Amino acid sequence: MTGAGDSKLRAPGRLRAFLNAIRLWFDNSRFDDEATEDGKRVDWVRCIPFIALHLACGFAFVVGVSATAVFVAVALYALRMFAITGFYHRYFSHRSFRTSRPVQFLFAFVGATSVQRGPLWWAGHHRNHHRYSDEPNDVHSPRQHGTLWSHMGWFMSRAGFATPKGTVPDLERYPELRFLDRFDVFAPAVLALALYFGGEALARSYPHLGTSGWQLVVWGFVISTVVLFHATCTINSLSHVFGKRRYATTDDSRNNLWLALVTFGEGWHNNHHRYPHSVRQGFAWWEVDFTYYGLRALAACRLISDLKPVPESVYPGEALPADREPG
Prior knowledge:
By secondary structure, the chain is mainly α. It has 15 helices and 2 strands. The protein is globular.
């Protein structure tokens, strides 16, 4: 009888936990502090939208394909990759240049449409990555946790949902950034709706394009977002496993041309860990860094300024100690 009673008592608690997880799909204002201690436990309920996004790629066989849909998918991949690499990473995480508050919000919003959570969450975890790179406290280190976990397992873990405390005080003072972080479903929903209604408008006005609202959602949002997510995450996983090491940093970071091409320059990861504060990651002239070129273009338009260069003392490929982010 005692066991049955205990089961009845536990049931409401489980229901509350389930409903709380559902609520956190839409509002990240409260996290379970005890859950953050269980770093290796995947929160499957809270990951349902993330899993559904991957499964929704199969709808491409239902909605079909058109040149317009592929163009939109590629364009949104490029735009959002630039927002992630140029702003989520080089600006919010490392403050490698300066910009105005409107431009800061614009690219924070575009980055948030990538379904890689909010700018505070992203920057907080990345700053911790540089503090503890490939040490036990690095939540996505292949050396410590294996390649699959470093690629996406940590993103799905109960600990991974929280923004690390005390890591982004410089960003927390902006209420608009806190909004994007708290309601990280808002920006993706706006993009998906815009694609749907835009596709329907094209179907009515330009039927020869052969597209539709749902087709643009599947290709422009779903497929583009999934590819973007996994391309971004290769820097956490593969860039610490495959490639060359110009600098003898204290972690396993490596330079990889192929990853640099798909991530607009982020694949020059050993360079980046040698000097994280620079706006450019392709240190050599032949190291393609599309994000850097884009940032130079924004600087020419006076939308950003004070781009931090690579110091001359860093350029030689010598066995120099790694620079770490301040703790």
